[in-house]
Design a protein that fits this description.
The complex is a heterodimer. Chain A has 18 helices and 9 strands. By secondary structure, chain A is mainly alpha-helical. In chain A, helix 4 crosses helix 6. The radius of gyration of chain A is 26 Å and the shape is globular. The longest helix of chain A has 25 residues. By secondary structure, chain B is mainly β. In chain B, the strands form 11 sheets. Chain B has a 22-stranded antiparallel β-barrel. Classes of the chains: A mainly alpha, B mainly beta. The interface between A and B is large, with 110 and 108 residues.
C-alpha cells in the first residue's frame, strides 16, 4: 500500500518537473504595433493620441510638464508682456532670464520630445493610410488631419528652435530635423529653414485638398478641419513674408460661414468654453479631468485657488492697452485684468483670461487658432504691403468687436499711425492675443528687440527695488537685441548627445 | 504484523532486563553558568532520550551502568559521559565558539556552518531584536558587512532600501530577493523571525539564478524547540521624537535679518533700509511661528507579541499573534500592523512529513500629504496660522509673506484632509517531504499568496491648500499568485566522502488587478465616492508575470576538510521575447577547512577555512513586456479613445547577467576572536538601461542592453570577546567593507547623460562609477563683487552659469561603510550598543542650492562655515542675494555624505531564576538613533539610492522627507 503512494508521488513529482507555463504575456493597457495596424480604429486612435499628447504626456506624466504649458511659457515668458514676480527654482526661470538659458533645460527638452512624439504618431498614421488603395472621404479627411497636425507641430517647433524666416537667408539657416515616416528614426541632420517651411506648406496644401469633402469629425472645433488648415497656412505664409498668400488664406477663412469674430459680450466669456464659439477655428479641448491645477497655463498668471499667481501684466502691455484712458472701461479685453495682488510688498496684476472653464480657475481649452487672428494676419500683410486702408479696415473690424461703448471713438484712422502701420497692427495683436503665445514670435519675425524695462526677476537686481521702480536700460535682462543668439532656443542636449548629425544652434 | 511482534518482543525484553539505572542532574553552560534549556540528553546507541527543562534539569532511565550519556545543545560542544554508579550527574557544557555545527538555512537547503563554501552572514533573532521596528531592514542596519541599508524616511511603516555588495544595475531593480522559510517571496512579522541569513556571493545565490543579482535574504521563522509547551509574551512601549538632523530653520528674527541682505545695493554695498522697512515693516517681528513644531509631536509606540510553541512526536507547532502601533511624529499620521502566524509540521508517517504555514497580516497607515513637510519648511515665521481671535486664518484672503498660501493647520484641526491606506495579505505554504529511500527524498513546496491593498484620500473644500477645491480618490488593488517548487534531494555518505544535492522544477505566476476612482464635489461631512457630485473618473488595469526554472545543486565533501558545491539553474521569464527568454546560471564554489587537516595543530588558531566561488546570476526586474512595441490607451481626447506610442520595440532585449567571483577566509583565534574576510569581483554585463534616444525619432528612451559595471570590494568582520568570566562577559563586533564601482564596455566615445530632475545630471561612460555627477563647475563667490563664479570651457572664471563647463564630480555610491557593536553582560544585566557608518560618497544638496535665490520662503540656518558677502574683499560662501541664481545645478552644491549613526543602545535586566522559577522575565530600556554625526548640512544624510524614482543621492532644497526619528523603548519579555 505504502509503495503505491510512493510511486504515485514520484509520478506526480515527475509530472511537476515536466510542466511548463505560457510566458507570452502582452500588456493589457496597450496595443502592440501589429495589433494597432489591424485595429479598425487604429488610425483614428493614433490621431486622437496626437491631441492627447498636447495635454498628457504618458511617457513622463506630470501636471507641470505638458505641451500646452511649455508652449505658452516658452513663448509669452520670453516676451515683453509678462512680469516675472517671484524667483523660482522651476526652470521657467530660464525662460525669463535669457542669459541663463542652456541646452540642458528640462522644459525646453520636454517640448521638443512631446512635439516629435506627435510627429511620430502622425507618421505612423500616414504609413497606415498610404496602404489604403481606395480611400473614402473619411480616410482622406483623416489623412489631411494627420498632415495638418504634423505641420502645426513642426511650425511651433521651428518658431522656437530656429531663427525667424528670412527669404534671403532661409536656405542657409538650419531648420528642423524632418521625420518623413514611422521608420525614420536614426540619427539625422537638420534640414534648412527654407526646406522646413516648404515641407510644412506642402503638408498643408495637400491637407487642404484631402479635406475638401465635409465629414462629421472635422465639424467639431476640437479637431482639425479645412478651416484650420487654411488658418495655419495664413499664419505660415505670414511668417514666411508671403503677404499675398497670407491675404488669400486669411480671406478664405474669414469668408467661411463656420467662423465669426466674437462680439464684446461673447468675448468676455469666450475663454470659458472656447470649443462652442464660432470665434474658434481649432482648440485643444480640456475636460475637467484634464485640469492641470497648479501646473496649468493659467496657474502662473492668475491669482485664485490652485494658482501660483507669481506672474502678471507688464507695464508696457498695460500702456498699449490704454491704461488710464476710457479703454479701461470700454475695451472688453480689460475685463481680464485683475486687482493688484500684493505679496512681500510687491505688486502684481494677475490675468484671468485663461481661467474659469467650468468655474475652475485652472481649466482652459486653449484656442490654437481663432478667427480674429485671420483679420490681424491679413492686416499685417496689408501693412507690410503698405496698404494702409485695408490694414486699418481689418484692425478696426477687430476693435469693433471688442468695444462695449464708444465704439467709433476707439476706431483707428490714418492719423493714428504715428510711426509705422505695421507697429499699429502689432499693437492690436499684442492686446488681442496677450497671454496667448503670440507676442514673442511677432517681435522676433518683425526684427524687433525685446525691451523689458520694468520691474521683475528677469533683471538681476530685483529684490531690493520697489515694483514701481524701473531698471536702467543697461541692466542685465532689460534690453535684448533681436539677433541675440539666446532668443533662439537651444536644441536640447538629449538630441545633440544622441544624434551626432544634429547641429546645435550657434552660441550654445 | 511484523511490527506488532517486534514491539511485543521489545516489551518482553524490557521486563527481563531489570538492571535499569535512573540518572538525574542539571546541565549548565560553561559560558555563564546558567542552566541550559532544552539540551538533549541521550543514551548512546539507543533512541532513549530526554530534554532539559527551563532550569536545566533532566532525569533519564538508562539500561545499565555501562551506558554512556550524550549531552548536546546548539552552540555547545557535545559531551559524552559513562554513567557508572552515579545517580546524579551535573554537567557543564563548553561553549562551541565557532558554531561550526550551527545549521544555516540557505534557501532550498540547509548546511552546517562548517560546510559552507560561500560568503554568508547569519544574524540571529537575539541580535536582530535590539531595534524595535515593523521591518527587518531597520534591524539589520550596520550588522552585516557588505550590506548597505538606507532609510530616507521616518514615516511609520516605511522600510529602508537594501543593497548587497554595491549597486550593480542602472535601471533594473536592485532590492535583494527575499526567501521566507525556503520559498521565494513571502511575508512575515519580524518578531516571528528566528534568523536572517544574507547570501552575498554566487556560491549560495547562484541557486536563485535570475533573481539573485542583488543578493538574497533568507528568513527563517520560529519553530518549536522542545516538547514543553512554551509561552512568550513581549511588550514594547516607546516614545518617538522627530529627528531633523542638522536641519534647522530660521526663526522670525533670523529670517528678518537675512532678508535685509536682499536690499544691499550691488554698487554701493549699502542696505536700503527705507525700502526694506517699507516691504517688511518691523511689526512683523511680533509673530514667530515655528511651523514645523505645529505639525510635529512626540509620538507613542506600542508593540505586543504573543507566541506559543511545542512539539510532540507527530506534531510540532508555533502560533503567534502580534500587534504593532506606531504614531507618527507628524500629527495625525501613524501605522498599525496585525500579524498572525501559524507554523505546523505533521509527521504523517515515518517517511512523510507535511508542513503547513500560514501567515496573515494586515496593516493600516495614516499618511501625511506628500508636500506637507516641504510647505511647512517654506512657510515663513512672520505668518501666523491663527488670527487675532485665535481662529484659523485663511491664507487666501489675507496678505501674507509666504509663498504657498498653505495653512496646514486647517487639515489638522478639522481632520478634513485624510489619506490612508490599508493592506491585507495571506501566505499559505504547503511543504510535503517524502523520504523515498534513506538517501533520496522528494520535496514539494507551494506557496499561494493573496494580497489586497486599498488607499483612500479626501480633502474637503474648506481645507486651504495649494491645489484648490475638494477631492476624493480611492484605489484598490489585489494580487494573487503562487510559486511551486518540486525537487528530489539526495544525501549519501561513502566512508569519508559525502554527497548531497537536489534537482527540481520551479514555476511562478502572479496576477495583479487594480481599480481606482476619483471625484469632486463632496457634501459636508461625507467622504465616499458615491457622494462625489462632480468630475467622477475611474481607472483600472490588469497584469500578470511569470517565470519557470530548472534548479539543481550538488555538494561534495571529503573528511570535513574539502568541500565542493556546484549549482545549475535555468530560468525563463515573461519579461523577454521568446528568443531571449531562457538564461543559464551556473555556479561553483569550494572550501578547505585547514584546521581539520591531520597535520594542523595549533592552540592559537582553532579554526581556519579558505573559500572561493565563481558563477553567474541575473536580473530581469524591469516590468513585463518591455521588448514589445506598445501604444498606450491610458489617456483620452475629448472623451475619445486615444493611442499614444509609448514603447519602442526591442526584440533583442535580454537578461542582465552578473559574473561573480568571491574569495574569503574564516578564522578563529582561541575561542575569543573570530574573523571573516571576503574579497569579491562582480561584473554585470548587458546592463538593462532605459537609454536616451534622439527624441526626433519619436521616443525619448528605449530599454536596451548596454555596457557593464564591475563592483569590486572586500568585507571584513571581526568578533572579539575580551572578557569572559562567570559573571562578566564583553563582546565586540566590528565590520567594514569597501566597494569600488566602475562602468565599462559602453564603447569608445559612448556616454550618456541623464537628468531625472530638471537639469541635474549624471553621466554614464567607460571608466567612471555609476551615478557620477556631471555638473557645471563652481568657483566660489567673487570676493570683489559678491557674485557666484563658474569655470568656463577654457578654464577662465565667469559669472555666466550657462557657459560654465561640465565636470565629473563624485558619486553617491558608497565606498566605505560598516558597523560597530558591543555587548556587555554582567550577571543579569546586559548592555548593547551598535552603530553604523558611511564614508566617502558625494551627495547633491539642493539644501544649499536655493539658499538665497528666493525671497518668499523660509531658509535653512546657515552652517558655521557659511558667510554672506557684504562688501568687497569678503571671502564668503553665500553671494550677494541680488545676484543669486535660482534653478542652477553646479559642483558648489555637492557635499560629502559621511556619517556615523548610533543606531541603538539597550540596557536589559533578566530577573534571577531564584525569583522567577520556571519562568523568565527580562526588562529592557533601549534608544534608537540616539546620535548622528555627519558632514551633511541641512538634511538627514541617509539619502535614497534609488534611481528609478528621481535621482540617486539628491537632497531636496528644504528636505521634504518625513523626518527621521529617535525612539525610546521600554520592553518586557516574559517566557512561561
Amino acid at each position: 500500500m505504502k509503495n503505491i503512494f510512493k510511486y504515485l508521488l514520484i509520478t506526480m513529482a515527475g509530472a511537476g518537473l515536466m510542466a511548463s507555463c505560457d510566458l507570452d504575456i502582452a500588456p493589457e493597457d496597450s496595443l502592440t504595433g501589429a495589433q494597432m495596424t489591424q485595429s479598425p480604429t487604429g488610425v483614428l486612435d493614433i490621431l486622437n493620441g496626437c491631441y492627447a499628447v498636447m495635454k498628457d504626456y504618458p511617457e513622463n506624466s506630470s501636471s507641470n510638464n505638458w505641451y500646452g504649458r511649455q508652449f505658452y511659457q516658452m513663448s509669452d515668458f520670453s516676451s515683453d508682456d509678462v512680469v516675472y514676480g517671484h524667483a523660482t527654482t522651476d526652470e521657467l526661470n530660464m525662460i525669463f532670464k535669457f542669459e541663463e538659458r542652456h541646452a540642458g533645460l528640462s522644459n525646453v527638452a520636454s517640448f521638443w520630445s512631446q512635439s516629435y512624439k506627435i510627429i511620430y504618431s502622425t507618421n505612423v498614421a500616414l504609413d497606415v493610410i498610404s496602404e489604403d488603395a481606395n480611400p473614402t472621404d473619411e480616410t482622406n479627411s483623416l489623412h489631411g488631419e494627420a498632415l495638418f497636425l504634423k505641420a502645426y507641430v513642426m511650425h511651433s517647433l521651428v518658431r522656437f528652435y530656429a531663427k525667424p524666416y528670412k527669404e534671403a537667408t532661409a536656405a542657409n539657416e538650419p531648420g528642423l530635423v524632418i521625420r518623413e515616416n514611422g521608420s525614420d528614426a536614426s540619427p539625422k541632420g537638420r534640414a534648412s529653414l527654407k526646406d522646413t517651411y516648404d515641407y510644412i506648406v506642402d503638408c498643408l496644401l495637400e491637407a487642404e485638398k484631402l479635406m475638401s469633402a465635409s465629414v462629421e469629425r472635422s465639424e467639431s472645433r476640437c479637431f482639425a478641419s479645412i478651416g484650420a488648415v487654411r488658418a495655419l497656412l495664413s499664419r505660415v505664409y505670414l511668417y514666411m513674408g508671403n503677404w499675398d498668400k497670407c491675404i488669400e488664406y486669411s480671406g478664405k477663412v474669414i469668408s467661411d460661414p463656420s467662423y465669426e469674430i466674437a462680439s464684446p459680450a461673447e468675448f468676455a466669456d469666450y475663454f470659458k468654453s472656447t470649443w462652442t464659439s464660432k470665434e474658434t477655428i481649432w482648440c485643444l479641448k480640456m475636460l475637467p479631468q484634464d485640469d492641470k491645477g497648479s501646473g496649468s497655463v493659467a496657474s502662473m498668471i492668475m491669482k485664485a485657488d490652485g494658482c501660483w499667481g507669481e506672474e502678471g501684466y507688464s507695464e508696457p502691455l498695460l500702456e498699449d492697452m490704454g491704461r488710464g484712458t476710457s479703454l479701461e472701461t470700454d475695451d472688453i479685453r480689460w475685463s481680464f485684468v485683475c486687482d493688484v495682488n500684493t505679496k512681500n510688498g510687491l505688486d502684481l496684476i494677475p490675468c484671468s483670461k485663461l481661467s474659469w472653464q467650468d468655474g475652475k480657475p485652472t481649466l482652459f481649452s486653449p484656442p490654437f487658432l481663432r478667427v480674429t487672428e485671420m483679420y490681424l494676419n491679413r492686416a499685417e500683410a496689408y501693412a507690410h504691403k503698405n496698404d494702409k486702408t485695408n490694414a486699418l479696415k481689418d484692425v478696426n473690424e477687430v476693435r469693433k468687436h471688442r468695444m462695449t461703448a464708444n465704439v467709433n471713438a476707439h476706431l483707428y484712422t490714418e492719423d493714428d499711425i504715428t510711426t509705422d502701420i505695421v507697429d499699429l497692427v502689432l499693437k492690436e495683436t499684442r492686446v488681442e492675443f496677450a497671454f496667448e503665445a503670440h507676442r514673442f514670435f511677432d517681435l522676433m519675425r518683425n526684427g524687433k528687440d525685446i525691451v523689458r524695462n520694468f520691474w521683475g526677476y528677469h533683471t538681476n537686481y530685483t529684490a531690493g527695488q520697489s515694483t514701481s521702480g524701473k531698471p536702467g536700460l543697461d541692466a542685465t535682462g532689460v534690453f535684448t537685441g533681436n539677433d541675440n543668439f539666446r532668443l533662439v532656443y537651444p536644441i536640447p542636449s538629449k538630441e545633440i548627445d544622441n544624434n551626432p548629425l544634429c547641429e546645435q544652434n550657434p552660441g550654445y | 504484523m511484523k511490527n506488532v511482534l517486534l514491539s511485543g518482543l521489545l516489551m518482553f525484553s524490557t521486563l527481563v532486563m531489570s538492571a535499569q539505572v535512573a540518572v538525574k542532574g542539571v546541565v549548565t553552560s560553561g559560558d555563564d553558568g546558567l542552566p541550559i534549556v532544552a539540551a538533549s540528553v541521550f543514551e548512546k546507541g539507543t533512541s532513549n532520550g530526554v530534554i532539559t527543562d527551563p532550569d536545566g534539569n533532566y532525569s533519564i532511565t538508562v539500561h545499565n551502568e555501562n551506558a554512556t550519556l550524550v549531552f548536546s545543545s546548539i552552540g555547545f560542544k557535545t559531551t559524552e559521559l559513562r554513567v557508572g554508579n552515579r545517580g546524579v550527574i551535573d554537567i557543564t557544557l563548553e561553549v562551541d565558539s565557532q558554531l561550526i555545527d550551527e545549521v544555516v538555512v540557505m534557501g532550498y537547503s540547509s548546511k552546517t556552518r562548517g560546510e559552507i563554501t560561500s560568503a554568508v552572514t547569519t544574524v540571529s533573532s537575539e541580535k536582530l531584536h535590539d531595534v524595535v521596528s515593523n521591518n527587518i531592514g531597520d534591524m539589520l542596519q550596520g550588522k552585516v558587512s557588505g550590506v548597505t541599508i538606507v532609510k530616507d524616511s521616518g514615516r511609520p511603516g516605511a522600510s529602508p532600501s537594501i543593497r548587497v555588495r554595491g549597486t550593480s544595475s542602472i535601471h533594473a531593480s536592485q532590492e535583494p530577493l527575499y526567501v521566507v522559510d525556503g520559498i521565494i517571496g513571502g511575508s512575515y512579522d519580524p518578531d516571528d523571525v528566528e534568523s536572517v541569513t544574507v547570501l552575498k556571493d554566487v556560491g549560495s545565490t547562484g541557486m536563485f539564478g535570475a533573481q539573485a543579482n542583488s543578493g538574497v535574504l533568507v528568513i527563517t521563522t520560529k519553530k518549536a524547540k522542545s516538547s514543553k509547551l512554551q509561552f512568550n509574551f513581549k511588550a514594547n512601549f516607546g516614545l518617538i521624537t522627530p529627528d531633523f538632523s542638522r536641519q534647522g530653520l530660521m526663526n522670525t528674527k533670523e529670517l528678518y535679518t537675512y532678508y535685509r541682505e536682499y536690499f544691499r545695493d550691488p554698487e554701493t554695498h549699502l542696505i536700503d533700509d527705507l525700502a526694506f522697512r517699507s516691504a517688511l515693516p518691523s511689526s512683523i517681528l511680533e509673530n514667530d511661528t515655528d511651523w514645523r513644531d505645529l505639525i510635529t509631536q512626540n509620538a507613542f509606540l506600542q508593540n505586543y507579541h504573543f507566541s506559543v510553541m511545542g512539539k510532540k512526536d507527530w506534531y510540532s507547532g508555533y502560533l503567534s499573534f502580534s500587534y504593532y502601533n506606531e504614531d507618527g511624529t507628524i500629527r495625525h499620521t501613524g501605522y498599525k500592523q496585525l500579524n498572525v502566524r501559524s507554523n505546523n509540521t505533521f509527521n504523517l508517517t515515518k517517511w512523510l512529513t507535511l508542513t503547513a504555514n500560514l501567515n496573515v497580516s494586515g496593516n493600516m497607515s495614516d499618511e501625511p500629504d506628500g508636500n506637507l513637510v516641504y510647505y511647512v519648511g517654506e512657510n515663513i515665521p512672520f505668518d501666523s496660522p491663527y488670527d487675532a481671535d485665535g481662529n484659523l486664518r485663511s491664507f487666501k484672503q489675507s496678505k501674507l509673506y509666504g509663498r504657498y498660501d498653505v495653512n496646514p493647520m486647517f487639515g489638522f484641526e478639522s481632520g478634513k484632509d485624510v489619506r490612508n491606506s490599508k493592506g491585507f495579505g495571506t501566505d499559505l505554504d504547503f511543504v510535503l517531504t517524502a523520504k523515498i529511500t534513506p538517501w533520496l527524498s522528494f520535496v514539494s513546496q507551494t506557496r499561494s499568496t493573496v494580497g489586497f491593498w486599498h488607499s483612500h484620500y479626501h480633502r474637503f473644500a474648506d481645507v486651504e491648500y495649494m491645489k484648490g477645491g475638494d477631492e476624493i480618490e480611492d484605489s484598490m488593488s489585489y494580487s494573487y499568485g503562487g510559486i511551486s517548487t518540486n525537487m528530489f534531494k539526495f544525501d549519501k555518505d561513502f566512508g569519508k566522502h559525502s554527497i548531497r544535492g537536489l534537482v527540481g522544477y520551479e514555476g511562478q505566476m502572479t496576477w495583479n488587478n487594480s481599480l481606482s476612482g476619483s471625484g469632486q464635489g463632496l457634501p459636508f461631512g461625507l467622504s465616499v465616492l458615491d457622494v462625489a457630485s462632480a468630475n467622477k473618473d475611474a481607472g483600472g488595469n490588469r497584469s500578470k508575470s511569470g517565470m519557470q526554472s530548472f534548479i539543481s545543486e550538488a555538494n561534495y565533501s571529503y573528511g570535513q576538510r574539502y568541500f565542493l558545491t556546484g549549482s545549475f539553474r535555468v530560468d525563463q521569464s515573461s519579461t523577454f521575447n521568446k528568443d531571449h527568454r531562457t538564461a543559464i546560471f551556473p555556479a561553483i564554489s569550494a572550501a578547505w577547512a585547514v584546521n581539520n587537516e591531520p597535520f594542523f595543530h595549533s592552540d592559537v588558531i582553532t579554526y581556519l577555512k579558505f573559500k572561493a566561488s565563481v558563477g553567474k546570476t541575473g536580473m530581469k526586474d524591469i516590468g513585463s513586456s518591455k521588448y514589445l512595441e506598445a501604444f498606450a490607451y491610458s489617456t483620452q481626447y475629448d472623451s475619445n479613445s486615444a493611442a499614444v506610442p509609448i514603447q519602442m520595440a526591442n526584440k533583442d532585449l535580454k537578461w542582465e547577467e552578473t559574473t561573480q567571483i568571491n574569495a574569503g577566509l574564516e578564522a578563529g583565534i582561541t575561542d575569543r576572536i573570530s574573523i571573516d574576510l571576503n574579497y569579491y569581483n562582480n561584473t554585470t554585463n548587458d546592463l538593462l538601461i532605459y537609454r536616451d534616444l534622439p527624441p526626433t525619432g519619436g521616443f525619448s528612451s528605449q530599454w536596451q542592453n548596454l555596457g557593464s559595471v564591475r563592483n569590486t570590494g572586500f568585507e571584513f568582520a571581526i568578533n572579539v570577546t575580551p572578557v569572559k568570566t562567570r559573571d562578566l562577559r564583553w563582546d565586540m563586533d566590528f565590520n567594514i567593507s569597501y566597494n569600488k564601482n566602475k562602468l565599462f564596455n559602453f564603447g569608445e566615445g559612448v556616454q550618456f547623460i541623464q537628468s531625472n530632475y530638471r537639469s541635474l545630471s549624471q553621466i554614464y561612460r567607460d571608466g567612471v562609477p555609476m551615478y557620477t555627477w556631471y555638473l557645471r563647475e563652481y568657483a566660489g563667490v567673487d570676493p570683489q563683487t559678491g557674485r557666484e563664479q563658474f569655470v568656463a570651457e577654457d578654464g577662465s572664471l565667469t559669472y555666466d552659469y550657462a557657459s560654465a563647463r561640465f565636470v565629473e564630480a563624485g558619486t553617491p555610491i558608497i565606498p566605505w561603510m560598516g558597523g560597530v557593536g558591543t555587548q556587555v553582560t554582567w550577571k543579569n544585566f546586559k548592555l548593547i550598543a551598535n552603530g553604523s557608518f558611511v564614508w566617502g560618497n558625494t551627495l547633491y544638496g539642493r539644501a544649499r542650492a536655493s539658499r538665497l535665490a528666493t525671497f518668499v520662503s523660509n531658509s535653512l540656518q546657515p552652517s558655521n562655515e557659511d558667510k554672506i558677502w557684504r562688501q568687497p574683499g569678503d571671502e564668503a560662501t553665500i553671494g550677494l542675494p541680488a545676484y543669486a541664481l535660482a534653478s542652477v545645478y553646479h559642483t558648489g552644491d555637492l557635499v560629502k555624505g559621511n556619517y556615523f549613526k548610533l543606531r541603538n543602545v539597550t540596557l536589559s535586566y533578566t530577573l534571577p531564576k531564584s525569583i522567577t522559577k520556571d519562568t523568565g522575565l527580562t526588562l529592557s530600556l533601549s534608544c534608537d538613533n540616539l546620535f548622528t554625526g555627519t558632514t551633511v548640512w541641512g538634511a538627514d544624510p541617509e539619502v535614497s539610492l534609488s534611481a528609478d524614482s528621481g535621482v540617486a543621492g539628491m537632497i531636496e532644497s528644504i528636505d521634504n522627507r518625513y523626518p527621521n526619528k529617535k525612539q525610546f523603548i521600554f520592553q518586557i519579555n516574559f517566557t512561561f
